[in-house]
C-alpha cells in the first residue's frame, strides 16, 4: 500500500454544514475558518450567503451565487488535518444542489436554532443523509438567546430527524442567564464570555461534584447541572464512535456560533471522530480511496452567468488515488482521454491552480460543456459511481417553444441546463410534451433567462397540475406493462429513459398504490 497516499487520506475531513436558513450555518462556517487561520476577521464569509432581501430577486441571487464559487469549497488546515467544507446554497429553491453536494461529503454537521428546533429544510436534508448513512453531528446554536429546554430539543431531534442522539456537551442555562457548557466528552467546563472574535476559556474539571464548579457557576446552577447530568447518564447511552460512523447516532453540541462559543469544542471533537474519505460504491465495484489509480466524479457544475464567458466549473470529488495536473484521465461517459491544464483547488477562500489532489479533495475543472453531473473520471477503468439520485420535484410546468425559428437552440439549451442539474426533465409518453420539474419557482425563472441569454432560445411555461413524479418498477414485467397501459396518460420518462408515473394528486397516487400492489413507487431515482 502507498503509505504517503494513506497518510493524505487519513488527514482529510470533507463535510458540509446544513441547516434551515437562518439557523447559523454561515456564522458557524466562518468561525471554523477563523480557527483554521483561513480568515482573520469575522464577517469575511458573508458574501457566500444569499441576502434575505434578495429572496425574490433571482438575478441578485445568481450574482451572489457567482461570488460564492470561491466559497463553494473552503479548504483549510487545522492541527494535522486538512479540512474541506462544502458549501450548500441557503435558498430552498436550490435544494437539489444541496442534495447533490451531500453525495460528495463524508460527514455532515447540522445546525439547529435552539428556539426554533427542527425546521422543514433540516428534516429534508436529514432524509438524504439517512439514505446514505452519512455520519451526522448536531450543533444546537444561539444558546445566548432564549430558547427551548435542552431536553425537549433532544427529544425533538430524535423524533423529527429519526436518529438516536447523545449530548456531548450540556448547557448551563440559556438566554440571558447562559453561563456556558459542561463538556461531557472531555470533562471540562467552558465558561461563556460573549465575544465575536475570541475563543472561550476552558476550565478542566475531573469531577463535576468538585466545589470548583459551585465556585464558578454558583451553587444553584451547579446543583441543576449535576441533576441534568445524572438524568443524561440514565437516559442516553454512552457515545459510541462506531455507531456515529454508521449513521446510527448523532452526537449533539450546544453553543453560540455568533459568540464563538462551543465552536472549538465542536471542531476538536469533529476532527477526531469524523470519518476520512470512505469507500465509494460504483455500479461495477466498491472503490477504495487507498487504491493507486485515480477516480473521481462530478457532483456539481457551476455555470458562469456572463453570456460572454460560457465557461463552467465542474466540481470533481476525488474518490481514489492521486489526481495530477496535465495527466490524461478517461472521461468514462464519452470514452475520451482528457487532460486538465488548470485544475483549481480551494484553499481558504482562494482558488489556485493545483498540481495534485487526494481523496476527499475537490478539484474545480474549467469546462465548456463536456461534463454532466454524475460523470466519472478515472485513470482508465470504466467505473460509474452510484448515488447521485434525483428527487421527485415539487413543481411542474410544460415547457413550450416560443420562437419556432430557434427550436434547435431550445433543445440544446434544455439539454445542457438539465446536464448541469438546474432542474429535471420528463417527457410525456402520452403526448411527447416536455415537462420541467423544479424544487422552487425561482428555477423556472433562471431557466427562462438562461435559455434566452445563453442559447438565444425563447420558452413559454404552461401550467400543469401535478403532485409528484414517481419512478416505478416491478419484479413482474406483465404487471408493469399493465400499469403503464392503464395509466398511459400519466406516464413519462426521465432523462435516462426510465419510467415515471406523474401523479396529479396525493389521492391518485394512493389509489394507484392500492390498486397495483405489484408496482413499487419511488420518490427518488436511486432505489
Ligand atoms: P444561515 O447561514 O444559516 O442562514 O444563518 P446565519 O449564519 O447568516 O445566521 C442568521 C442570523 O442569526 C444572523 O443574524 C446571525 O448573526 C445570527 N446568529 C448566528 N449565530 C448566532 C448566535 O449564536 N446567537 C445569536 N444571538 N445570533 C446568531 P442576522 O441579523 O440575520 O444577520 P447579520 O446582520 O448579523 O449578518
Describe this structure in words.
The model is unreliable at 47-56 (pLDDT under 50). α4 (95-102) runs parallel beside α5 and α11 (407-419) packs across α12 (441-455). The protein is of the alpha+beta class and 527 residues long. It has 14 helices and 31 strands. The strands form seven sheets. Strands 27-24-26-25-29-30-28-31 form an eight-stranded antiparallel beta sheet. Strands 2-3-1-4-5-11-6 form a seven-stranded mixed beta sheet, with helices on both faces. It is globular. It binds guanosine-5',3'-tetraphosphate. Guanosine-5',3'-tetraphosphate (G4P) is lined by residues 19, 21-27, 49, 90, 141-142, 144-145, 256-259.
Give the low-pLDDT segments: 47-56
Helix content: 25-40%
Number of alpha- plus pi-helical segments? 14
Tell me the span between the first and last alpha carbons.
Answer: 34 Å
How large is the radius of gyration?
A: 25 Å
Major sheet characteristics: 8 strands, antiparallel
Outline:
globular
- Global structural class: alpha+beta
Strand content: 25-35%
